[in-house]
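Shape matters. As here.
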Amino acid sequence: MADRKTKANPASVAEFLNAVEHPGRREDALVLNKLFCEVTGYEPVMWGASIVGYGRYDYTYESGLSGSSLATGFSPRKANLVVYTMPGYSDFGPILDRLGPHKLGKSCLYLGRLNKIDLDALGELIRAGLADLGTRRQIHPK
């Protein structure tokens, strides 16, 4: 069975965020980090090489596959800011309607620059995603 590539690791979140190449994307990443810290109450942890995660949960599938995953987080990718919440955003339409320009993936939210995003709505969405996850899994701070 293949080993999971995206795992929590001891890399420095501050170094990663400060090394984001594009100045606007770096600025937005620092704003997101502050927002996630305030909303979740969790310290950020690097997951893989490019995801900043807040909290984690453990899982075991019927197949026997088990592991841990970030509870929520983001990645400042070149094309978009990617916000992760598990299990997804399917029940959060009213919040998403207030958010601003975005695209949805299965458990990813793709954002452009934050100056077009309602950060209060994004904070509400992060809280709602964690609350939803908390009904299915125990969330751990690290």
Notes: The mean pLDDT is 91. The helical segments are 13-18, 23-40, 93-99, 119-134. The longest helix spans residues 23-40.
